[in-house]
Amino acid sequence: MRHLLSTEGLDRATATSILDTADNLKRALLGREVRKLPTLRGRTVITLFYENSTRTRVSFEIAGKWMSADVVNVSAGGSSVSKGESLRDTALTLAAAGADCVVVRHPASGAAHRLAGWLAEAGTSVVNAGDGMHEHPTQALLDAATLRERLGSVEGRRIGIVGDVLHSRVVRSNVHLLATLGADVVLVAPPTLLPVGVQNWPVTVSHELDAELPSLDAVMLLRVQAERMHGGFFPSAREYSIAYGLNENRLGLMPEHAVVLHPGPMLRGMEIASAVADSPRAAITDQVRNGVHLRMAVLYHLLAHEEEAS
Fold first, then answer.
1. Which stretches make up the Aspartate/ornithine carbamoyltransferase Asp/Orn-binding domain (predicted)?
2. 47 is in an annotated binding site
3. Contact 165, 187 (CB under 8 A)
4. DSSP 8-state symbol, 81
5. Is 36 annotated as a binding residue?
6. Residue 281 annotated as part of some ligand binding site
7. Contact (Cβ atoms closer than 8 angstroms) between residue 182 and residue 156
8. CB of 45 within 8 A of CB of 69?
């Protein structure tokens, strides 16, 4: 595997191998006072973020450092991008400086794919950490890791994804990956927050949250991405919460084993009540914790796996 740009086209064997590697790395670090593995010593990982991030950026940095890689963080505001440098020139500069892997987040859909094309000759790997409204593959993988941990398996499970589907790159990556792993996915959202062509996705679509909850093994709440919205998509935040927010009463409609996920950041009181977010049924902090091990696994498969196999 040279790059991780998308879950679309990621085959089941590769996805499962990454998830299994994350499990093995998690066990390898369990109980260690110093959480360090020598696996990527001498490698350089650069995070290049054109959008704000807490969870993704921090977890990639920790993942690289726990594997003994040299990690360098570059933000658009603190780089030559602020002087007008193009994405291509920035990428080529980072490759020339010795980057073995560039982890990129960019507001334009397809940016990570363009970056991979420009860096092909240099042999630099690219990880898509979110490109516009397109995809966020490592988020989907860590969600799958959390579902495996909580439910035992993903195959045959019914997973509900609720909220702002239209603007969510997390949804697109999860739909592809969960379908590949054998899950049944239902999208629950108002018609105004569903993309054109959703009927062609491997999902079922519903507008009634209460009707779907009793049959779900897991529900993933999505943040309403107001920063990407131009115009009115629903009457008010209060009415959205009444129709699609997960509160304690709705949590009671779900099976006892069902788990609650959220990719963050959460808008407490809108898509999720604080009592739900902080309940034992919620796996939100587990997602963050698993994200570090999952991103360690991705870096391993990109930068170390082929060497060890040869």
1. 156-302
2. no
3. yes
4. G
5. no
6. no
7. yes
8. yes
Q: How many other C-beta atoms lie within 10 A of the C-beta of residue 121?
A: 9
State the span(s) of the chain assigned CATH 3.40.50.1370: 12-136+288-309, 137-281
Distance between CA 185 and CA 207 in Å, rounded?
A: 14
Contact, 7 vs 35, CB < 8 A? no
This prediction has a pTM of: 0.93
- What is the CATH number assigned to the segment(s) 12-136+288-309? 3.40.50.1370
CA atoms of 225 and 81, how far apart (whole Å)? 25
Q: How sure is the predictor about 32, in pLDDT bands with cuts at 50, 70 and 90? A: confident
DSSP state of 9: T
For the record, the structure tokens of 285 come out as: 């902090």
Q: How many CB atoms lie within 10 A of CB 37?
A: 15
Residue 309 in this model has a pLDDT that exceeds 50? no
43 assigned ligand-binding residue: no
pLDDT digits (tens, 9 = 90+) for 151-203: 999 999 999 999 999 989 999 999 999 999 999 999 999 998 999 999 999 99
Q: 169: annotated binding-site residue?
A: yes
Q: Are 277 and 268 in contact (CB under 8 A)?
A: yes
Place of tokens 């091990």: 293
DSSP β-bridge partners for residue 17: none
| 7 DSSP assignment | S
**Taking Cα atoms as reference points, which of 62, 26, 68, 22 lies closest to residue 44?**
68
**Is 56 annotated as contributing to ligand binding?**
yes
For tokens 């995809």, the residue is 135
Give residue 248's identity as a one-letter amino acid code: E
CB 106 within 8 A of CB 51: yes
Assigned architecture for domain 137-281: 3-Layer(aba) Sandwich (3.40)
